[in-house]
Design goal:
Radius of gyration: 37 Å
Largest sheet: 7 strands, antiparallel
Distance between the termini: 149 Å
Order of helices and strands: HEEEHEEEEEEEEEEEEEEEEEE
Oligomer: single chain
Length: 406
């Protein structure tokens, strides 16, 4: 009994020690800033219309300085447009110099001398033409590219007031006419004619038409026919990035200016079709098989649009079509049952497609502006002064003054 009584004391003592509260210091509240900064964009979204030869995207907005105190004295207000590139598989693990690369594209200095601003809102307009060769905002498994406006205002007491506004840049490639491709599959006489659009979008479907010819081969006593059993299609997304090395890690890649190349591939859409084609063995040219099917990117995969960046990031897409055909024999008369030979082939072909954002009803900035001075046509031709003397002189008429009556 004494042993049990002693154990209960130890247990009560242990619990009382665990529940002893610890004194924690109160969190520090940062001092309030005398002003804050906001950015209000006034232009449409930044969209490059066309490929790398695009004329760019024009954006404009207002930088708002909101003074919350009676007044504030600022020594400088500057804003930078920066492009931030992040490598997700760097040469040096956890090395910030290998992971991040920041490029300043434009700098605005709104004031050049100390200025006092009263309580209220003060606006500073800005605008810039983004060059069309820049890559669009991208986020894939290998790298990330984004843009941001970073503002910094310094008070007379050397306090910094900062603000960052993300800027999304997109690219919209106008869809060209449908592309027609011809594929030949030796040693057979099979040929496949495919019609598809070379530009697709992350949301929506597109049609693919294919026609197979040469499905019938005449022999002496029999006919060899190819019959479609199944058609598989898929859209593959390929990513490639070169991870640069900082000066501290040049020895890992073999010297300055070199890097590590990484590649990845993922499927963003696929389907199998087992029926729906039209077979005509009596058509001219050895018979034909026709099929039209819809294809699209699978919802929820967040595809990455095509990118070719100077930083080393390249993203492209391929549409791959595989057709499984089986061989069968039939009598030369074309009547009777067909006999499968057991032979089969997989006809595989691929086409490059461009994944891009939809342009909608927007147009490029250079098509919105009025004509420039040099675009104004020449004035009408002058009078023929050389032949003025040869023209007859018009007769004189005696006319009554205006306002008189006869």
């Amino acid at each position: 009994m004494d042993f049990l009584h002693f154990g209960s004391k130890e247990k009560r003592h242990s619990n009382s020690g665990q529940t002893t509260p610890k004194n924690k210091g109160s969190p520090r509240i940062p001092p309030a800033k005398p002003a804050r900064i906001e950015i209000q964009m006034e232009s449409p979204p930044c969209v490059f219309y066309g490929g790398p030869n695009s004329t760019g995207a024009l954006f404009s907005g207002q930088l708002k300085l909101i003074v919350t105190e009676t007044e504030v004295r600022l020594t400088s207000i500057s804003m930078d447009l920066r492009a931030h590139s992040v490598t997700k598989k760097p040469v040096g693990k956890d090395c910030p110099d290998c992971i991040n690369k920041v490029t300043t594209l434009k700098t605005w200095n709104f004031i050049t001398e100390p200025t006092t601003y009263d309580h209220g809102t003060h606006q500073f307009p800005f605008s810039y033409l983004l060059p069309g060769h820049l890559p669009a905002t991208t986020n894939c498994s290998l790298a990330k590219i984004d843009y941001a406006l970073q503002v910094k205002a310094v008070t007379a007491l050397a306090d910094a007031i900062t603000h960052e506004h993300p800027l999304r840049v997109q690219r919209a490639v106008q869809p060209p006419p449908e592309k027609q491709s011809l594929r030949i599959f030796p040693p057979t006489n099979l040929t496949v004619n495919v019609i598809h659009t070379p530009v697709i979008h992350p949301i929506g479907t597109f049609l693919v038409q294919f026609r197979m010819n040469g499905v019938v081969e005449k022999q002496k006593t029999t006919l060899t026919r190819w019959r479609v059993k199944k058609l598989d299609w898929r859209i593959d997304e390929h990513s490639q990035n070169v991870s640069p090395a900082c000066p501290k890690h040049w020895n890992k890649v073999g010297g300055e200016g070199k890097g590590q190349q990484h590649e990845e591939m993922r499927n963003i859409g696929s389907d199998s079709i087992k029926q729906g084609w039209k077979t005509d063995f009596d058509a001219l040219g050895g018979g034909q098989i026709e099929l039209e099917f819809p294809a699209s990117i699978r919802p929820g995969v967040n595809p990455v649009c095509d990118v070719d960046s100077p930083t080393g990031l390249v993203v492209w897409h391929l549409l791959i079509v595989e057709i499984i055909v089986s061989e069968e024999l039939v009598k030369n008369s074309g009547h009777g049952h067909s006999v499968p030979t057991g032979a089969a082939r997989v006809l595989r072909t691929q086409f490059k497609v461009v994944v891009t954002e939809r342009g909608g009803l927007g147009i490029s900035w250079d098509q919105e502006q009025p004509p420039m001075y040099e675009d104004v046509p020449h004035s009408p031709p002058g009078y023929m002064t050389d032949y003025a003397e040869e023209l007859p002189t018009p007769p004189d008429f005696d006319l009554d003054p205006l306002g008189t009556r006869q």
